[in-house]
Structure formats: C-alpha cells, structure tokens
Write a structure and sequence with these properties.
By secondary structure, this protein is mainly α. It is 71% helix and 0% strand. One of its GO terms (molecular function) is transmembrane transporter activity.
Length: 282
Amino acid sequence: MVLLLVVLFAFTIGGSTVANWNTLAVTSGHGPMGVLAAVAIMVSLFMGIEAPVELGDEIRDARHTIPKAIVISILLTAIVYGAVASTTLALIGPEDLGRSQAPLADASARIWGHFAGAVIAGVAVISLLKSMNATAMVFSRMIFAMSRGGVLPVYLSHLHPRYGTPYRATVVAALLSLSGLLLPGSLVFLLLAVNVPTLLKYMACCASAIRASRMDPTGADGLLSPSSVLVAGVSAIIMASAMVVFSVWEDWRPVALVGAWLIGGAVWYRLFVRDVRMNYPG
C-alpha cells in the first residue's frame, strides 16, 4: 500500500508539470449525463471502506477503531484518486482516456516514457492482488456470517480446528469468485457487475443502521440521534438508487444480472430459510 501511494504521488507531481489543465474544463461538450453515467463506475474506487465493519469480530476495540478507519479511508481515497484522475485526464485528454485500455500506464508514458508505463502496470498488478486478497477474506466472512445467521447452510459456519478460520466458507467464496471468469471481458461491464451489487449492499447497510438506531438509540454512543440516522440513511439510499439507475445508460446487462441474482436469492429465502438468528448461537 505504501509503495502504491509513493508511486501515485510521484505520478501526480511529475504529471502536473507537463499536463494540459485546460482539458479539465466543465464545458467539455459531453454534457451532464456523461458525468452521471460515470458515477456508478466510480463507486469501485471506494470499495473496501466497509471491510472493517464486515471484519468487526476480528478487530480490537472495534467500536472506536472502525469509525476512525472508515473516515480516514474515505478522505484518503478521495484525495488520492481525485489527484490521480485529474492528472491523468490533463495528460491524455478525455477522448484518448476513453479509448485507453490502461489509462495510468498511457499517462505515465507521457511523463517518463514507455518504461514508466510498464512500471505503473506492475504496481497496479501488485495493488490488484492486495485488493483481491482483502475482498476474498471479506467475501468468505459474509458467507460465514450468513451461515451462522441461518440464511445459508450451517455446514459453511464450521471453523478450522487448528487455525480458527471459516475454511469451508472460504472455499465456497473462491469458487464463486472464479465464476466471474465466465462474464464478458468488457471493462465497463465488469465494473458495473461489481459496483451495482456493492451499491445494493450499501443501501442494505443504511437500512440496517436506521433499524438499529431505532432499536438501540445508544448504538452510536450518542453521536447521532435516531432521526439523524434516518435522514442520513434515507439520503444515502436515494443517492445509491439513482446511481444504479444511471448505470443503465452505460450497460444494462449488469443490472439485469444482479436482478436475476436477487430473484434467485428471494426464491432461496422463501423455500429454505426458516429461522434467521440475529445473534450467534451459544
């Protein structure tokens, strides 16, 4: 992570000296719908900020650590990606950026030559592996939690006798992840196929926060009243819903795919789920 931040910092500083900042004008001719359609794709930049919540049982002093981690993650992500995106756009322009299959590599080649493009690509691969490892761990914990809650078969909630990890849920998560290889290779499709369900997950978290605040007004340590949580949660749900709608302008297929998953999940819940446990069994 530190290596990635150092490389991106060098890219931003180096690119700022040769970039054409006039390309950042808001009157670029693409209209507001182009911006709105891109919002759903940009959600992927913030993926992972919710990971501490999903790993709460494995974090020391989670009540105080998780809120700080989420705030720091959002601020750091916004600053870093805002600077990198602006520099990339100013270096190669919107038209070339839209056609590029490796935007950062192409942009860095404008600064330091083609060798730099290869270095950026290598760092991106390392960063991708880091993100995949974190995502796989979170995915397995979600399956594990759903199993212990009674939504998925209890078979998946077993822990490894030596390491204490949900190894069965991890295997299932890996197999489900590999199924992504069967999806189309379009970058926009793949981003939306990940981002749309992520938005739905965020919406579900907001709805859960609203319900939890009404059941336990002290759940936020008195920082937010139930009415404040309601306003913030409903606002977030509305914005996330709008982003899902805007994504249809880019590619309708991911939305249809997620819709099919929702129907399948509803059928599973109706036929096989009998007792949902909100707390872990003793």
